[in-house]
Amino acid sequence: MEALTGGSVSGDGWSRQELARFLRSRRARVTPGQVGFPEGGRRTKGLRREEVAVLAGLSPTWYTYLEQGRDIRPSIQVLDSLARVLDLSEDERRYMHTLVHGQVTNPQPLEGQTWSGDVMGPLVSLMSASAYPVYATDVHCDLTAWNDAAAEWYDDWGSYTPEHRNMLRWLLVSPKAKERLPDWERVTCDVIARWRSELARWPHDERLTAKIAEFSQLSPLFAGLWRRHEVQEHRSLTRRFRHPRLGLQTLRMALMITPDEPLVGLVIHFPMHAGE
């Protein structure tokens, strides 16, 4: 996908204390009966520290240190285990990851979102009248929605079989990509570098692993660049096109993402003079 970022605040004293306060508050919210423990004989509400530790597969002493705000850094797996035991919402799980690691690994769809299912598809439909391309692409680089202008400036992706509607695959193997993009090689290298940066967020996605193997077989360019480990963060940029009627054109590109659908980004194109 052509999108997404994060930062790091690990080791910060405020973050450790905030995590400690957060864990204590969420531990108090879980009743013993929710996790199969007896309810009686308790002076305080919620679970005991030792019970949380046992359920999460942790040392009680280590977990106590965590709730005391000591200088320890729980792994992603430990945080997810605590999220399960403490019955955290996805919002709360993301907050905990951000406190410890500065970013969220493997974000899931948020609960209680206004729209269910596909969010980007309706947004593309709303922009169907635009004279400039709008398309939605996911972390696998699959094209999930696009307007008529995208077919005019890029290609008629609707004519491809569903498994071949993939932006990176199109760049690598379609003759139309080289025809429509005067800077085809630079664009392709840029997308590959940004894709590698994105993949760091999804280290256990088997479909991504399969895509890397597929593209390596399809394209010597991809195989060579992948071995070089080129990495580039996502950013707004410009892209040159060879339009069938308008000739050489340069458009700006911007990406829109929503927390509701962390896997999908909406890529919007607009003329260079827009807003000036």
Describe the structure.
The protein has 276 residues and is α+β, with helices and mostly antiparallel strands. Strands 2-1-5-4-3 form a five-stranded antiparallel beta sheet. The protein has helices spanning 13-29, 49-56, 60-67, 76-85, 90-101, 120-126, 148-153, 167-173, 175-180, 184-199, 206-218, 220-228, and strands at residues 134-138, 143-146, 237-243, 247-257, 264-271. Strand 1 and strand 2 form a beta hairpin. The two termini are 28 Å apart. Helix 2 (49-56) packs across helix 3.
Number of helices: 12
Low-confidence stretches: 1-10, 113-117
The helicity comes to 40-55%
Main β-sheet description: 5 strands, antiparallel
Number of strands: 5
Taken from the alpha-carbon principal axes, the silhouette is elongated
- What is the spatial order of strands in the main beta sheet? 2-1-5-4-3
> Strand-residue fraction?
5-15%
Q: Please give the radius of gyration in angstroms.
A: 23 Å
The class by helix and strand makeup works out as alpha+beta
Secondary-structure map with pairings?
Elements: H1 13-29, H2 49-56, H3 60-67, H4 76-85, H5 90-101, H6 120-126, E1 134-138, E2 143-146, H7 148-153, H8 167-173, H9 175-180, H10 184-199, H11 206-218, H12 220-228, E3 237-243, E4 247-257, E5 264-271
Antiparallel strand pairs: 1-2, 1-5, 3-4, 4-5
Helix pairs in contact: 2-3, 2-4, 4-5, 10-12, 11-12
Short description:
The chain is of the alpha+beta class. 43% of the residues lie in helices and 13% in strands.
